[in-house]
Amino acid sequence: MEAILKVKNLKKYYKENKAVNGLSFDLYEGEILGLLGPNGAGKSTTINILSTILKHDEGEIKFFGRDILENRKWIKSQLGIVPQELAIFEDIPAYKNVEFFTSLYGLSGKVLRKAVLEALSMVGLEDKKDIKPITFSGGMKRRLNIACAIAHKPQILILDEPTVGIDPQSRNHILQSIKKLREGGTTIIYTTHYMEEVEEIADRVVIMDSGTKIAEGTLAELMESYRNTRLYKIYIDSTSFQYMDRNKFKYDFFYEIEGIQKVVFTDNCFSITTIKEIENLDKIILSLVDRNLKISHITSEEGNLEMIFLKLTGKKLRD
């Protein structure tokens, strides 16, 4: 299958900082590609370049075989962009919001009206079309944001953290809408800080760190590559830090234990990836008890994306 988007050796510099540094990946028709990385990995810069907001410094990007630098206007017409920040007018009705953004792509008359109503229906806001979004919940505003991006029926939809800061019901509605869009033939690039969303909807995943790709594949392929890894989450009672600065707490001692691969400490929780075949939980617990840390509870996980991400980057997705 021929890729409809090819990114090859992409680079973007900000003075001495290499925001994107040799990134390469392909996007295939009808798939949802999850683009993951910790903060500072270069995801937002990559999205801005693909959206034609920024120009890259080196490398090559081709949409449907056309170079992005030579065909910016045409490529824009093929894209739908859902940015992190809401891009809606809160003081005009939902219908008028979608109508305005869709008209920018040349739609008019009956075709425009049909497209607007279909987009509002897709995100479950058809009964709110005459209401101003200033009265909407955060989740409803996010859904309207998506409607504004899909009404012109783009071939590629780029969603940059579309579910940030919303309630579970709205998040589920958005994820179901995204699945329907894929079923209708839309190709999607999806970034998020919620690993479970990628596990639910993505066909393939690209993981970035320090401006470049460090892993790529289907969920099954990634799981197979790291099938011998286990993730322990050890939650520490907050009272353990009454007399110490948790931000200055050193945990290098973990790496003296056989089988330990990566350790991250955030929100009173040690996330520890370890070789599954090596039984070392007793030593991990003892090392914490010896340092007067009170354990509230422990979970053990195998074969999930969070474990793989932690092992590859040494960070949590929200770090």
From TrEMBL:
Transmembrane segments: none annotated. GO terms for molecular function: ATP binding; ATP hydrolysis activity. Residues 5-235 form the ABC transporter domain. Keywords: ATP-binding, Hydrolase, Nucleotide-binding. Its EC number is 3.6.3.-. It comes from the Bacteria. Signal peptide: none annotated. InterPro entries: AAA+_ATPase (IPR003593), ABC_transporter-like_ATP-bd (IPR003439), ABC_transporter-like_CS (IPR017871), P-loop_NTPase (IPR027417). PROSITE patterns: ABC_TRANSPORTER_1, ABC_TRANSPORTER_2. This is Daunorubicin/doxorubicin resistance ATP-binding protein DrrA. It comes from Clostridium chromiireducens. The lineage of its organism: Bacteria, Bacillati, Bacillota, Clostridia, Eubacteriales.
